[in-house]
Write a structure and sequence with these properties.
The chain is globular and about 60 Å long. The chain is built from eight helices and 15 strands. The protein folds into two domains: 175 residues, HUPs (Rossmann fold, 3-Layer(aba) Sandwich), CATH 3.40.50.620; 117 residues, Rossmann fold (3-Layer(aba) Sandwich). α3 packs across α4 and α5 packs parallel to α8. It is 25% helix and 24% strand. Strands 5-9-4-1-2-3-10 form a seven-stranded parallel β-sheet, sandwiched between helices.
Length: 320
Amino acid sequence: MAESLIVIEHDRQQVKRASLHAITLARQLGGEYALLVIGQSLDKIAASLVTYGASAVIVADDPALAEPLADRYATVIAQAARECGAKTVLAVSSTYSKDVLPRAAALLDAPMITDVVALEEMEGSIAYRRPINAGSMFATVKLEGDRRVLSARATAFEAPAADAAPCPVKHFDLDVASLPHDMQFISREERKSSRPDLTEARVVISGGRPLKDKETFERLVGGLADALGGAIGATRAAVDAGMAPNDYQIGQTGKIVAPELYIGLGISGAVQHLAGIKDSRVIVAINKDPDAPIFHMATYALVGDLYQIVPQLIEAIRGS
């Protein structure tokens, strides 16, 4: 029996580190917790999770789960939660969890709260704090019922230490025939890049609409990212204009990042974008508009022409 069941994401080779932050939320909730990994050929991934203090690592491993089809994964999550008696199902906020967790919540007939950033005690029970209105406000929410489904904002919780005694790995007894088959996997398109993953990078360089076109975006944003060994991000306006792919988008409707260093090039600072970077340790903003809203959040603000400043910055870094 486990009080919480944590869904862990992976890329077929290794665990996505951001998903481990949900363990910290489970520890704050109290009680035992189990980790659930779903997919195919998961022995190596499961072995990497046994020292995170869980009561067990539950592995749903089958060719039918090779691709993350939301209806099948949600069914497995709901079945695993029932079998281990979990009152709480947890995962980090991501495109994956946004697709799968609401389906699992419906199957469990359980209420769901997304983007939890903190726990609060209210009248002797736990309440959940989450951002609303593009991160400009916070709501504190209480849930009724025996079960709940939560997604945690990874940037709000520290990464857990992997220093516990190894726990057992338990293989989930999967009835493939009971899985839904209405959804069919067609193809996968993956962007191969030598740059670090955006949500896990220590340095993120992001660009906005003033970069004009895809080539300029890559030359300046990509050039500075490569000089610093960082990842590339973009505003929604830059993505909509075709300068950057959708998976580069940072903000309330994109990815939430919290790097040690974030540099924004030509970004004015729409509230939706600022919601995605506010937990960054150091924010550097370069913009020719001295009244750009991002300057109010920036650790360092540089007013000037990015077309002159960024090439000089790249040259200085590479020459150092």
